[in-house]
Amino acid sequence: xxxxxxxxxxxxxxxxxxxxxxxxxxxxxxxxxxxxxxxxxxxxxxxxxxxxxxxxxxxxxxxxxxxxxxxxxxxxxxxxxxxxxxxxxxxxxxxxxxxxxxxxxxxxxxxxxxxxxxxxxxxxxxxxxxxxxxxxxxxxxxxxxxxxxxxxxxxxxxxxxxxxxxxxxxxxxxxxxxxxxxxxxxxxxxxxxxxxxxxxxxxxxxxxxxxxxxxxxxxxxxxxxxxxxxxxxxxxxxxxxxxxxxxxxxxxxxxxxxxxxxxxxxxxxxxxxxxxxxxxxxxxxxxxxxxxxxxxxxxxxxxxxxxxxxxxxxxxxxxxxxxxxxxxxxxxxxxxxxxxxxxxxxxxxxxxxxxxxxxxxxxxxxxxxxxxxxxxxxxxxxxxxxxxxxxxxxxxxxxxxxxxxxxxxxxxxxxxxxxxxxxxxxxxxxxxxxxxxxxxxxxxxxxxxxxxxxxxxxxxxxxxxxxxxxxxxxxxxxxxxxxxxxxxxxxxxxxxxxxxxxxxxxxxxxxxxxxxxxxxxxxxxxxxxxxxxxxxxxxxxxxxxxxxxxxxxxxxxxxxxxxxxxxxxxxxxxxxxxxxxxx
Length: 583
Description:
Layout: H1 2-36, H2 110-126, H3 130-137, H4 141-156, H5 158-163, H6 174-183, H7 187-199, H8 220-225, H9 227-230, H10 239-248, H11 252-272, H12 285-298, H13 309-325, H14 339-354, H15 369-377, H16 386-401, E1 417-421, E2 427-431, E3 451-453, H17 463-473, E4 487-489, E5 492-494, E6 501-505, H18 508-512, H19 514-521, H20 531-535, H21 542-565, E7 571-573
């Protein structure tokens, strides 16, 4: 019996040694591939490329790059055990397992972790940011962070990595093994890893802390000893790494802008300089300066028209961001090596402005008092139909609260706007803006408070009465504090009914086009957007107030006559506009 146990132990040690040798060979092979891989640029044209929000993912591996999606490394999502009595049932596939998307797979061993890290590193060198690289690989950022120490130690200090006791899947998890790798890093190895991250040889990502706390019984003592390194309250990553990571975090609009500039510049090079096949970050500064100067002077839109002056400047900034991400040695916007392209851009902008370009053709126009009168006359701002009431409440809130920092109509809740009574007995609506922490103050107007006061002398135009009417028309289930403020309208509404709205939030797209939709239905000319409300005046003169009261009185009389002539009530159809002139 003892001999059998000893032989099994020897077999186990031999298998572990074989796995370690296999990991060494794969690491060496990957390093050679990354260091010797020729730079190849993608030859797809702009007609084949789609915007980043809807384009399909390109294959991650070329003919020269080894594929790591093998049964030895990953679990297969395709192999599903089906009970014999349940074969007639339809198997639901993963939501992410769709055509054109990268499915996420679970690592089985150390080799798979290192291979996934190297693939993400390769994509990071080619892409704009780590977010784009992780999306292309189909892996979550936190997943890479939890096991990053394994790959970092194998690349920065392979001799230390191979001296560690091999990983045993029956004894510990990969997260625990990552903790051991992190423990094996001394100050010199940490300094080397930091230097490699700065050079782009490693992913500039901080270790994911708080993982690996739940250990198997055989690893409990080891995890308790490493609690200072892997615990939930362990040391915070150093300031330089966090700063480098935050600098690379870009919002979606910036990423799209960078990709658009890069795509248009590449298409220009393909069309005018077909022999140029290098990536732009590998082109010497004097040649790249000449290409950029030619691009700023000769580039045209797809329809053959000239670009706007600001568009060319945005392209320059987008290319600057991309080159900075790729650690290009020069700045195309500041360095004297790119003086030719900088001067070409300035001259082109002056030429375009002389031709009339750059006059903000898409600027939104102010929503004037006359426009509001037209909207009220045609029932698009009215208490007597569901669409007009919704528009009216939205307009009142946007005028009163839209200037405040953190006010967002799409995320507004019913409890955010409260009906209160002041010390003088005057009713008002107050927005609880203290709960918000948004820092965007572009539309903030100083000297105003987040309240709407009632107008007892003019109840027809009182915003508080509009709010009360809107509250009465809401379903009872939508009167709790966390309910969405703006509700969708029922497809067909009986105006005599109590409730006009669904128990469902109004869509963000409809909220973003409130003014545009109103003005189109009211036949009001000009380009009107939600920003037009910020430009309008929130206070009215006495003559304007009297005119507004007169119109509201007429609308009230017309609505009363219509209800009396149709005792059963009239139907309102959301597809059409409510025109009071036809009542």
